[in-house]
Amino acid sequence: MDSQISTFYHRSLYPIIAAIFCALLLISNIGATKFIDIGFIKTDGGAFLFPLTYILGDVLTEVYGFRAARRVIYTGFGLGALAGFTFWLVQIAPAAAEWPNQGAFEAILGFVPQIVFASIIAFLCGQLSNSWTLVQIKKRTHEKKLWARLIGSTIVGELVDTVVFTFIASLGRLTFDEFLNYLVVGYLYKTALEVLLLPITYRVIAVVKNREIGAS
C-alpha cells in the first residue's frame, strides 16, 4: 500500500495542481485587501490571480472527478480560514518597541472579519458550484463539448462567488452604485478572462489527462 501511494504521488500531477490551486487562493486573498479603481472599473487585487483558481478547479474536476476536486476545495477553504486566524493572532500580538509598522501591518494584513468571512464563504460556494455544474453538464453531453461545460461551469461558479463575496463584503462599506459596479464589472471581467484563456485550459486538461493515463 505504501509503495502504491508513493508511486501515485511521484507520478501524478494531482498534488502539484492542488498545491498551486491553494497557493493562488492565498495570494489572491491577500491581494484582495486592496481595492482598485481603473477608470469606471472597481475591483480588488485578487482579480489578477483568482480567476486562475477556477481554471484549475475545472482541470481538477474534468480530470480527477468531483470528489477529488472537492477535497482540494475544502483544503483551500481550511487554509484560507487558517491564514485569516494567523494574521489576527499576529495583529493582536504586542509589537516590539523598535518595530514601527504595526499600523501598516493592520492596514494590509489586519484581520477584518467581514472581508475574511466574505472571501472564504464565497470561495467555497463558488468553487463547489463550479465543479458541480461541470459534472452535470458532462453527464448530459456524455463527455462531449468540453467548451460547453468549461464555460457553463464558469458562468455559474463565478456568479455565485461574486454575488456572495460582494454582498457580504460591501455591507456598510460601499454605496449601492459602488456595490453594483463591483458586482457587474467583477463578474464580467473574471468570466471573460476565463473564456479568453479557454484554449490554454483545453491544453492543460489534455496534458494532464495524458500524463495521468501514462502514470496509471
Question: SSE layout and pairings?
Answer:
Elements (H helix, E strand, L loop, with lengths): L1 H10 L2 H18 L3 E4 L2 E4 L5 H15 L1 H27 L9 H8 L3 H29 L4 H25 L5 H21 L1 H18 L1
Antiparallel strand pairs: 1-2
Helix pairs in contact: 2-3, 2-4, 3-4, 3-6, 3-7, 3-8, 3-9, 4-6, 6-7, 7-8
Average of pLDDT:
87
Q: From the coordinates shown, what is the CATH architecture?
A: Orthogonal Bundle
> Which radius of gyration do the C-alpha atoms yield?
19 Å
For the record, the count of structural domains works out to 1
Please report the number of helical segments.
9
Anisotropy-based shape: globular
Proportion of helical residues: over 70%
CATH class: Mainly Alpha
Strand-pairing-aware structural class:
mainly alpha
Strand content: under 5%
Walk across the major sheet and give the strand order.
1-2
Topology pattern, helix = H, strand = E: HHEEHHHHHHH
Largest sheet: 2 strands, antiparallel
Low-confidence stretches: 1-5
Instruction: Write down how many β-strands occur, each being a DSSP E stretch of 2 or more residues.
Output: 2
Fill in the CATH topology: Arp2/3 complex 21 kDa subunit ARPC3
Can you describe what's shown?
The protein is mainly alpha-helical and 216 residues long. It is built from nine helices and two strands, in the order ααββααααααα. A two-stranded antiparallel ribbon has the order 1-2. A hairpin with a 2-residue loop joins β1 (35-38) and β2 (41-44). α2 packs across α4, α3 crosses α7 and α4 (66-92) runs antiparallel to α6 (113-141). The longest helix is centred in the middle third of the chain and has 29 residues, at 113-141. The chain starts with a helix and ends with a helix. Mean pLDDT is 87; it is low at 1-5.
